[in-house]
């Protein structure tokens, strides 16, 4: 059965925009995944201020994959694009996260849906609300837009960068 999932995309190393474009291309070529909508690109300061700023976006996908299979596909794309996991919240060429998977609430090893820290992050909420302003948080049913209004982490929509 096909489901709509939302994927977060971020990069703060190298040619950030090119890494994001490559990740989206790879995602769209993966069997069982069809990209539906893409947000604008947003810029945000790194959580660890001693790193370069991030570029961020979100995409909705129509997928026949189970949540764990989607996460496995994302990890494979990250690896292909040179993601190295040395330090928690360290710099990265690409970061791909399953943010939402339909209205599923799931906690299993290696995957928590909805993404556990998404409500604290404008760089997640703003792109999500851009592509679907009616999205609700599956845990409490509140509109994500309410959370986005309360989140001020320095995220701003970029006029300099475009994914397509």
Descriptive notes:
- By secondary structure, the protein is α+β, with helices and mostly antiparallel strands.
- It has one domain: Alpha-Beta Plaits.
- The protein has 4 helices and 8 strands; from the N terminus they run E-H-E-E-E-H-E-E-E-H-H-E.
- The protein has helices spanning 16-29, 67-80, 122-131, 144-150; strands spanning 3-11, 33-38, 42-44, 54-63, 95-101, 106-108, 111-113, 156-157.
- Strands 1, 2, 3, 4, 5 and 8 form a 6-stranded antiparallel sheet that branches.
- Strand 6 and strand 7 form a beta hairpin.
- Helix 3 (122-131) crosses helix 4.
- It is globular and about 40 Å long.
- The N and C termini lie far apart (29 Å).
- The mean pLDDT is 92.
Q: Mind telling me the C-alpha Rg?
A: 15 Å
Ends distance: 29 Å
- Give the structural class: alpha+beta
The stretches of 5 or more residues where confidence is low (pLDDT under 50) are: none
Proportion in helices: 25-40%
CATH topology: Alpha-Beta Plaits
Find the CATH superfamily. Answer: 7,8-Dihydro-6-hydroxymethylpterin-pyrophosphokinase HPPK
CATH class: Alpha Beta
How much strand content do the residues show? 25-35%
As for the number of domains, it is 1
Overall 3D form? globular
Q: Would you tell me the overall average pLDDT?
A: 92
The SSE order reads EHEEEHEEEHHE
Q: With helices defined by DSSP (H or I, 4 residues minimum), what is the helix count?
A: 4
From the 3D coordinates, which CATH architecture would you assign?
A: 2-Layer Sandwich
Question: What kind of sheet is the major sheet?
Answer: 6 strands, antiparallel
> How many β-strand runs?
8
């Amino acid at each position: 059965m096909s489901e709509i999932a939302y994927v977060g995309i971020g990069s703060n190393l190298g040619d950030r925009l090119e890494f994001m474009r490559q990740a989206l291309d790879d995602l769209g070529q993966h069997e069982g995944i069809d990209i539906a909508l893409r947000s604008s690109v947003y810029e945000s300061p790194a959580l660890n201020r001693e790193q370069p700023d991030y570029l961020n976006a979100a995409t909705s996908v129509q997928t026949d994959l189970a949540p764990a299979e989607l996460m496995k596909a994302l990890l494979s794309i990250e690896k292909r694009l040179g993601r190295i996991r040395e330090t928690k919240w360290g710099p990265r060429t690409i970061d791909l996260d399953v943010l939402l998977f339909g209205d599923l609430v799931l906690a299993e090893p290696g995957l928590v849906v909805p993404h556990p820290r998404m409500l604290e992050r404008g760089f997640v909420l703003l792109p999500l609300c851009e592509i679907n302003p009616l999205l609700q948080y599956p845990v409490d049913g509140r509109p994500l837009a309410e959370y986005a209004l309360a989140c001020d982490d320095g995220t701003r929509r970029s006029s300099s960068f475009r994914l397509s």
